[in-house]
Design goal:
Layout: E1 3-8, E2 17-19, H1 22-31, E3 35-38, H2 51-57, H3 59-69, E4 73-79, H4 86-93, E5 97-98, E6 103-118, E7 121-128, E8 131-135, E9 140-144, E10 151-157, E11 166-167
Antiparallel strand pairs: 1-2, 1-7, 3-8, 4-10, 5-11, 6-7, 6-8, 6-9, 6-10
């Protein structure tokens, strides 16, 4: 279940809200223009499952979201525990950036934290198995998969070239607490 923490963007030591209550999380994110849903993630994904197997396991919900939100494609990002290049991969997403399209992720297993810089607040959303978060185009954000990452997420795209980031150059992400992994 997702966990939402809200900070003022100029003071990461002040927690204005911290909750895992589904209604509080989804309502607060909706007020900020973000889509948050809980999907049934009951399909067990074998450690050796490839992209096609993960997409096939969730074909129905994937097709429904693509129709509803105009996504053209979906792929799978899988980061297993102990991945040798995990540190470099983590660093790639830790800088504030935006996208020209909505960024949607459904967590099939594991967890990670999205930090969303909305107005004068930073909303940290820790997503876990079953959580779907869609970040609108142009929203400043960064992602932290933690020091020992483990997750599988289905990513949705409207652009054929997939994930393309425009980095803001702001060092705000350096000042906020990092995600240490599941609670």
């Amino acid at each position: 279940m997702a966990w939402l923490t809200v900070y003022p963007d100029n003071d990461p030591t002040v927690v204005e809200l911290s909750s895992s209550d589904r209604m509080v999380v989804s309502g607060h994110l909706a007020m900020a223009g973000l889509l948050f849903e809980r999907w049934n993630a009951e399909k067990a994904i074998d450690d050796t499952a490839d992209t096609a197997a993960v997409l096939a396991a969730y074909a129905g919900p994937i097709a429904a979201l693509k129709r509803a939100r105009g996504f053209q494609s979906a792929d799978v990002v899988r980061v297993p525990r102990g991945m040798p290049e995990a540190g470099a991969l983590r660093a790639k997403f830790l800088a504030e950036h935006t996208h020209e399209e909505d960024e949607a992720r459904f967590f099939v297993e594991g967890s990670g934290a999205f930090y969303l810089h909305v107005g004068d607040r930073v909303l940290r959303v820790v997503c876990e198995r079953g959580d779907l978060l869609s970040v609108p185009a142009g929203t400043k954000h960064w992602f932290d998969m933690g020091p020992d990452p483990h997750f599988t997420a289905i990513r949705f795209f409207t652009r054929p070239d997939g994930w393309v980031a425009a980095f803001t150059g702001d060092v705000i992400a350096d000042h906020f607490p990092r995600y240490d992994g599941p609670r």
